[in-house]
Amino acid sequence: MAETTHPSGVGAHGAPDGEGTTRRDFLYLATGAVGAVGVAAAAWPFIDSMNPAADTLALASIDVDLAPVAVGQAITVTWRGKPVFIRHRTEKEITEAKEVNLGDLRDPQPDSARVTKPEWLVVIGICTHLGCVPLGQKPTDPKGDYDGYFCPCHGSHYDTSGRIRKGPAPANLPVPQYAFTGDTAIRLG
Ligand code: FES
């Protein structure tokens, strides 16, 4: 069964409603979980090889409402214990992603193979070098030399399609399994 995640503004902390948690509380908890992912990232391959716990199975799929995310904005949701970066790309970002010569890429993949709709980039936000969470989601974050994401751990730069362009990371940010369930709604998993 899928849970629904509704993005809201940065720093929104809802109050418990007595019956459980509000949507904003869920977001707050999910955002908090992203912080924990950094600590757990190094152990991920090991954890991945174990049988999933019941609560992991419960979050095998989540629905994400993208309607509140304006062009140029980004949200991070936690899915199966990992941060998923969702960016509503601008025309400029889409053009940059499409115009790249594949021969210049370390891990050659056309943008069209990495997105379902050009305006929405959905990638797992874990650097393929050593598993840090790259910067580039917040408006104030450095986005690296290619307008995408920057991993300050050892200086990996990703482009607006999440492809590795510079630095030690060997591969592009992975695209998770997802599908659009509406014009502005996706289901991860
Ligand atoms: S973990 Fe990202 S550059 Fe090393």
UniProtKB/TrEMBL annotation:
Its EC number is 7.1.1.8. Binds 1 [2Fe-2S] cluster per subunit. PROSITE patterns: RIESKE, TAT. Its cofactor is [2Fe-2S] cluster. InterPro entries: Rieske_2Fe-2S (IPR017941), Rieske_2Fe-2S_sf (IPR036922), Rieske_Fe-S_prot (IPR014349), Rieske_Fe-S_prot_C (IPR005805), TAT_signal (IPR006311), TAT_signal_bac_arc (IPR019546), Ubiq_cytC_Rdtase_Fe-S_su_TAT (IPR019470), Ubiquinol_cyt_c_Rdtase_Fe-S-su (IPR006317). It is a single-pass membrane protein. The Rieske protein is a high potential 2Fe-2S protein. This is Ubiquinol-cytochrome c reductase iron-sulfur subunit. It comes from Azospirillum oleiclasticum. The gene is petA.
